[in-house]
Amino acid sequence: MANIVVLGSGMIGNAMALDLAANHKVTAIDINKRALERIKKQNNDVDTQLFDLKDEKDYTELLAPYDLVVCAVPGYMGFETLKKILLAKKNVVDISFFPENCFDLDYLAKKNNVFAIADCGVAPGMSNVILGHLDGKMEIKSYECLVGGLPVKREWPFNYKAPFSPIDVIEEYTRPARFVENGEVVTRDALSDCELMDIKRVGTLEAFNTDGLRSLIYTMDHIPNMKEKTLRYPGHAEYISVLLKSGFFSDQEMEVEGLAFRPIDVTARILRDNWRLKQSDDEFTVMRITIEGDENGKQRRFIYRVLDKGCSESKTSSMARTTGYTATGMANYVLQNKPESGVIAPETIGAKDGAYKFLLDYLKQREVDYRIEEFTLN
What we know:
This protein has two domains: 3-123 and 319-365, Rossmann fold (3-Layer(aba) Sandwich); 130-314, Dihydrodipicolinate Reductase, domain 2, CATH 3.30.360. The termini are far apart. It has helices at 11-20, 33-42, 60-63, 78-87, 106-111, 126-135, 166-174, 216-219, 236-245, 263-275, 318-336, 346-350, 355-365, and strands spanning 3-7, 25-30, 47-50, 68-71, 92-94, 115-117, 139-151, 177-181, 184-188, 195-199, 203-209, 225-232, 254-256, 259-261, 283-295, 298-308, 342-344, 371-376. The mean pLDDT is 94. The chain is α/β, with parallel strands linked by helices. It is built from 13 helices and 18 strands. Helix 1 packs across helix 11 and helix 11 packs across helix 13.
């Protein structure tokens, strides 16, 4: 049994704290008193601590008692939070999905002889683990990941509910999307190359470019074709593009009648109400990963599919399950199999003997089931 601290107690942080508490001593830390009370109500064995992670400059004393940190803060504060964790000389599994390059902190992790598993969610995260595993078995020629979290009930105009902060979703829609085409890194606008896709057990969804490859661009630069697209109901990308092109996502300060504000802050506040995912809302997370390449002289295709509809009994959302349980599975894995120091991408863990199976089994035990199809193409 390890002593673990979870930083951030939102929807996903909540699910992680409760899952880890089944086998470890867990403390949840957040500035939101109501979120901490919710965790305590669900499991009184979880310790809670009210703390402003954003404003404090030094986490050394805060994190001193713990064997492992699991970080689930919003993306906009993720990089600085991870830096403070490493300065406190603590090992960490991180899902904050910040815009900065995680490898910029590799020197700090190595200097302090600790590890940080970055981007350890569903995608990036489990998708990377799968690619890392297959990369050791075959010469991969192409990788495609399609992923999205959606409400069952469509509500005009966005047909979308956010399981996490709207500002993080907006970041996904505004950050330039990088992918690899014929061995070259290509950058296009997010929301571009929108196309309709037939997704098994779901139906027709639209897929558009987002910057989801992240660490794969650096660690898997030998794979000539890689792309990640976000899945939404048809029409969503057009509504978001209207907001984007009209300046609603601008972070440049403007003034109206003597009041200074950033349009993105107002938009995020409005969308928070429109996109709020209630505990009573039925929703699902869907992902399809297609990997093709040469395995012992044969052209092979592997397709991984996951469709998770959340848990109505525990009221745990599908995104909290698919993202959070990947991170808690990774936490359990690294507690048993300590990696080398440094910032480590999930695909690097996926290449290690036993890690891929450990994580798939961990998720399956929690009824997050990856269906695998294999084809020989010649």
